[in-house]
Amino acid sequence: MKLFTLALIAIVMVVVAVALRPRIARADLLKEGQIAPPFTTQMVTGETEAPVSLADFHGKKVILYFYPKDETSGCTKEACAFRDGYARYTNAGLVVLGCSVDSAEAHKDFIRKNGLPFPLLLDPGKKIATAYGAANGIPILGLDRRITYVIDENGKVLKVYPSVDPSTHAIEILNDLGVANAAPPAQAKPAPPTSN
Question: Which of 62, 75, 120, 143 does the annotation list as catalytic?
């Protein structure tokens, strides 16, 4: 009985501590037509890390999706849906970037286990998530909200997805952009041999 009472007191103390902890306010979501906040960070592609900034993608449409955590069920579903439709994205000239608070090693494991062909951004200080209104979506755990932005070729927010179904979201974006059936780019035919 004494052990039960101690456990109950410990649980109550944790709940009170969480309830009294200062709340970090969430930033507002960006609106369509706004300039997307610039960012510079590291991206993980396969087993490599490289510097990246939003400016690197000027002239291309970017799908920037925020998700709470690598290797969780909803996040894995969403990432695999982007993976499964990746050829359609690239055929339509779209860039896919995932972003969460996970470490480079966690991203590498997530990419390896699920065969993800697109980069995952590092955001340890939540600067990107904060600028895009995705930070502190799950305040108790300090995880990002599940939000996606489509950024146009000139760096403006084209579309905002504040409510995402991880299993259907990837195709939803393709449908909304009118590129769900994007054909592969035409292959250049080799020049015929010339006779001298």
Answer: 75
On the question of pLDDT at 140 being above 90, the answer is no
> Rounded CA gap, 83 and 188, in Å?
26
Sheet holding 94-100, edge to edge: 48-53, 40-45, 120-122, 94-100, 61-66, 147-151, 157-161
Whether 75 sits among the annotated catalytic residues: the reply is yes
Beta strand pairing call for 120-122 and 48-53:
unpaired
| Three state DSSP letters for 75-130 | HHHHHHHHHHCHHHHHHCCEEEEEEECCCHHHHHHHHHHHCCCCCEEECCCCHHHH
* Rg for the chain, CA atoms, rounded: 21
| SS3 (DSSP) at 59 | coil
Q: 112-122: string of b/e by CB count within 10 Å (b at 16+)? A: eebebebbbbb
**Per-residue pLDDT tens digits for 81-131:** 999 999 999 999 999 999 998 999 999 999 999 999 999 999 988 999 999
Token pair listed for 188: 């250049």
Domain at 40-176, CATH homologous superfamily? Glutaredoxin (3.40.30.10)
pTM metric for this prediction: 0.78
Q: Do residues 167 and 77 make contact, with C-beta atoms less than 8 angstroms apart? A: yes
